[in-house]
Design a protein that fits this description.
20% strand, binds 6-phosphogluconic acid, 7 helices, alpha/beta
């Protein structure tokens, strides 16, 4: 099921996302004893992370049973200004009672094979996966790039066609860089996907994602087909301005 919610502005998007986070955390813990969430980088989710790190959420959310993962990462060390881990640490983790043992960064630096292997090993261990089983996150937070990418699944890249591993390093010619990303089979296996998209610059990408042709190579979000989960798009009016 895909739900689209249009909200007045980025503050309202963050508020709606925090409410949903709280509900999903409670449901997940009730059902399975833990809440496993993968966080996106970029600028859009920062207001949400700040909100979660302030009252009432800081004191009321079940942080001790929450596992924090990352949708994608830059090829940089953890303390680099471009690191998603660093951004999440500074905006959220520094102010909430989440122990380091509950945080599972993606390795950014190193040989491609090492990064992919360490991502796979980490997921297999934490989720206690059997062979050929994909991890099942309770919530994956996603943003949308102006070019239509989410996590680090960019148009025209191998991330759209290679389903052989859970964490992949991909070459992204359009940004002349490599990225580390959770892959489509993992994202499609999540219970809940939540997109946060704000600002007029995203209007075209939102239109393509929600109302564009089914061309996966050009519009990566067309590859999102949750196995047994749902997608909610929380969009502000500016980003939704081209929707019919
Ligand atoms: C990242 C992401 C990426 C992001 C989009 C949107 O690490 O950059 O996870 O997919 O969500 O690029 O980024 P903004 O929110 O900065 O527009």
């Amino acid at each position: 099921m895909t739900e689209t919610v249009i909200l007045p502005d980025s503050g309202a998007v963050a508020a709606a996302a925090a409410e949903r986070w709280a509900r999903l955390a409670a449901e997940s813990i009730e059902a399975r004893g833990r809440f496993m969430v993968a966080l996106s980088g970029g600028a859009t989710p920062r207001p949400l992370y700040r909100l979660l790190a302030s009252e009432p959420y800081r004191s009321s959310l079940p942080w001790s049973r929450t596992g924090i993962f990352f949708t994608d990462e830059r090829r940089v060390p953890q303390d680099h200004p471009d690191s998603n881990y660093r951004m999440v640490r500074e905006t959220l983790l520094a102010d909430v009672p989440v122990a380091p043992s509950q945080v599972f960064p993606l390795k950014g630096e190193g040989l491609i094979s090492d990064v992919q292997k360490s991502g796979r090993n980490m997921l297999e261990e934490v989720f206690r996966l059997q062979r050929k089983e994909w991890p099942r996150f309770d919530l994956v937070l996603l943003g949308l790039g102006e070019d239509g990418h989410f996590a680090s699944i960019f148009p025209g890249t191998r991330a759209l066609t290679d389903n052989s591993m859970p964490v992949m390093v991909i070459e992204v010619p359009s940004i002349k860089a490599e990225r580390v990303t959770l892959t489509l089979p993992v994202i499609n296996n999540a219970r809940h996907l939540m997109f946060l998209v704000t600002g007029e610059k995203k209007a075209e990408a939102v239109e393509a994602a929600l109302q564009g042709p089914n061309r996966i190579s050009a519009i990566p979000t067309k590859a999102l087909k949750p196995v047994d989960g749902d997608i909610v798009w929380l969009i502000d009016e500016a980003a939704a301005s081209r929707l019919k």
